[in-house]
């Protein structure tokens, strides 16, 4: 018996506003991976995201009486643009609630489409709660971004197009997951017609709501989500989308920020287009999956879900792409503090490509250097570099997977200080907005002295700070309680080897 969704998907009204997006070959990536990789270019939609499909289908099915009441939605950006465009096309007044941290490019796009924008909350969940309040107060129709049958059916038209464009001759489709609307619609349709085609969901490690919910057998609410891939940063997936994913999705992969950045570069090299982090999740998933399974000569589709990315975030993407693509390794190396030691170390490296070299003189102690090497052969070469440095008689620590080293320490090398007492080191994240850094410092307060501080705008929705704070042992419990009361995300980095080698007392 066919799922009722099959008929809903086939009857979905999306093409008043959406295009049938092309399915393009990715020749460079295909050659590298030994498989035929096809990119479903939803980033080419009028609002640069697949989201307008579900939004328009939901709004198109409203009765005239309901439509006259007006509509409201909550979104970090992509759903908001879809709703705004759909409402404009039907002539329906629209209100969109977006978090205060929403990308400026997305806020402006929604306003340009004629919707009223209300900024509220630090994340999607705060905007969602405010939208529900306004819906009740103003008697508006709430258009859910993912947990609605009409929205799911609209997103399912992506699956219809993929099967028509491939004739069903494919081995797997990789789909990014936020709340689950896209993968729910695609999987229910594809599995009905071609049950042997694998549907692989992809989520960021720091926003793994669907993965954790399927593992628990129920919807779970994440304590916090990462915001690098803001379009999929959802703390709680949909009830309906979870049920459909449990029935039709074969597996969910989790990806790191570095792997996502590398995939953005991969897409650019094949298409000369820049997708947003969520839009690159599927490509990152393919790379991880084919390496794990040893797949060769398979036909695989990646859904490039969107391209709404702030320009200033590209700096962070470029810095992390080589590490994520196993094209760079970062090492901390101890060398003698004596004339000629730099030369001897570089001679030992031979013709290897040095991408970064940080050092500061420190009396006659052994010198700590932070050095990056370009790689051409991936993880095997990384291990060979570390082994060669050790065999050369140097003490080496691999920092390639050390988040604190990549975010902060590489910009602070040479920060040793003598005589400092009771210093602890913490890494913080706080919502990025005008005045946010000042508010953060005021919240930390003046009871304890800040002895080290590094902040750098990474072009993301959250600010990242590394802070050394002098806290006597007898006051540590009070300090931790103070941090918990602030509700900032924090990580204790006092034992991090990068701190010990380059910054600590």
What report would you give on this structure?
With about 500 residues, the protein is of the alpha/beta class. The chain has 4 domains: about 5-50 and about 150-320, Rossmann fold (3-Layer(aba) Sandwich); about 50-140, Rossmann fold (3-Layer(aba) Sandwich), CATH 3.40.50; about 325-400, 2-Layer Sandwich (Alpha-Beta Plaits), CATH 3.30.70.260; about 415-500, Biosynthetic Threonine Deaminase, Domain 3 (Biosynthetic Threonine Deaminase, domain 3, 3-Layer(aba) Sandwich), CATH 3.40.1020.10. About 40% of the residues lie in helices and about 20% in strands. The chain has helices spanning about 5-10, 25-35, 50-60, 65-70, 80-90, 105-110, 125-140, 150-165, 180-195, 210-215, 240-250, 255-270, 280-295, 315-325, 340-350, 380-390, 405, 435-445, 475-485, 495-500, and strands at about 25, 35-40, 70-75, 95-100, 115-120, 140, 170-175, 200-205, 250-255, 300-305, 330-335, 355-360, 365-375, 395-400, 425-430, 450-455, 460-470, 490. The strands form 4 sheets. The chain has a 6-stranded mixed beta sheet with strand order 1-2-10-7-8-9, with helices on both faces. Helix 6 links the parallel strand 4 and strand 5 (about 115-120). Helix 12 packs across helix 14. The longest helix has 18 residues, at about 150-165.
List keywords for this structure.
four-stranded parallel sheet; 4 domains; alpha/beta; Alpha-Beta Plaits; six-stranded mixed sheet; Rossmann fold; 41% helix
